[in-house]
Amino acid sequence: MNLELSVTEAMSTPVATVTLDTTAYDVANILKDKGIGCLIVVNDAKKPVGIVTERDLALGVVSRNLKSKEVLVKELVSPKLISIPPKSTLMDAARKMDAENVKRLPIIDGEELLGIVTVSDITKVSPELFNIMVETTEIHSSDYDYAKKEIIEGICELCGSQDSINYINGKYICKNCREDSEEDEDEY
Fold first, then answer.
1. What is the CA 28 to chain-centroid distance, rounded?
2. Per-position pLDDT tens, the chain of length 188
């Protein structure tokens, strides 16, 4: 198992950043152009001070029917940046993600942003750790309906592909396998 790998071995670099005065409109375009789900927010001294995600845009701009060119990142960013030091293991990162209910952790050494590690990064490097993360979440959330919740990314137990997966009939399966099984049911 790759549970003791360092977060620096799985992190993504370079990390896209924005300032507190960047507009939500610009954030949305950067996310779209780069094909990513978050940006690290830095202050004038380039010190990481927060994170802004697609969800922040949806809740802070779209759901409030605001004009994205008039909303600044400082109005969207959460006041606490949850990060992890570079000497941490992937298991440490998985535990922290679970404890803090986040999907991304900036890797910060002192005040320097080194990279970012996401659930997807962990899944690519250590699929077995992803399974542990899912099991831990199930234990902590016994009332959670996994049949209706799509997991961001994981390993399909039927075909082995890395994709968005759902927990259905006791297995984590991707959309293609789910559709195939639904087609098989329709044939009867």
1. 16
2. 455 789 999 899 999 999 999 999 999 999 999 999 999 999 999 999 999 999 999 999 988 889 999 999 999 997 789 999 999 998 899 889 888 989 999 999 999 999 999 988 888 877 666 566 556 555 455 544 444 444 546 677 788 776 677 777 767 788 888 877 665 544 44
Q: Does the annotation list 174 as a binding residue?
A: yes
- Whole-model pTM? 0.68
Among 161, 187, 185, smallest CA distance to 174 is for 161
Q: Kindly state whether residue 173 falls inside one of the protein's structural domains.
A: yes
Q: Residue 107 is part of which domain span?
A: 7-124
Q: Do 69 and 150 belong to one domain?
A: no
Instruction: Judge if the upstream peptide bond of residue 106 is cis by omega within 30 degrees of 0.
Output: no
Question: Helix 90-100 crosses helix 127-140 at what angle (to 10 degrees)?
Answer: 30
**38 annotated as ligand-binding:** no
- Rg of the Cα trace of the chain? 18
